[in-house]
Amino acid sequence: MQSKHLIQVAMMTTILVILGLIPGIPLGFIPVPIVLQNLGVMLAAILLGTKKGSLSILLLFILGLFIPVFSGGRMSVPVFMGPTAGYVLAWLAVPLIVGRLSQWLKPQTTLMIFVVLFIAGVLVVDVIGSIWLGIYTGMPLLKALITNLVFIPGDTVKAMVAAVIAHRYKDSLIKQIG
């Protein structure tokens, strides 16, 4: 991998770590807080693409073995053994799905970028997270899915923000770094 690509991956991982420093908002009725790191995951997917976006998320997971990089000052092992594991592990799928949808849909407008990010970064992550939440807590799947509706408004805003950033800056960022 070229050094410019390594820098892109490292910079995005740094953004993911910084977003993890912002405390999550606990909801009380569900053991999963509202966090900003999934905004970084969507940005990694849309700005860096499938390979580099996935690498930046994987690097976050590896760093989390040694330092607290997840919201709430948590490290990888407790995250992967807790109620949020499904959501966090689903982050690895986001760049892959964004890449595939981008190949099919060729999103050029902010709206189309938003649609791609909403499908991959909101719907897929929330469904996988709900499945794990149901398994972890013993909650029926339908109830876990319904409970996760609380995340849709905030995650929708995050997908919109990522789409606007991507539409406005994707080409210029790649040219500056590349």
UniProtKB/TrEMBL annotation:
Cited InterPro entries: BioY (IPR003784)
Membrane-spanning parts = 5-22, 55-73, 79-99, 111-133, 145-166
**Localization, UniProt:** Cell membrane
UniProt membrane topology term: Multi-pass membrane protein
* Domain of life the protein comes from: Bacteria
Its keywords, alphabetically, are: Cell membrane, Membrane, Transmembrane, Transmembrane helix, Transport
A GO cellular component annotated for this chain's UniProt record is: plasma membrane
Which molecular-function annotations from GO does this UniProt entry contain? biotin transmembrane transporter activity
Q: What family does this chain come from, according to its entry? A: Belongs to the BioY family.
PANTHER family named among the record's database cross-references: BIOTIN TRANSPORTER BIOY, BIOTIN TRANSPORTER BIOY-RELATED
Stated name of the protein? Biotin transporter
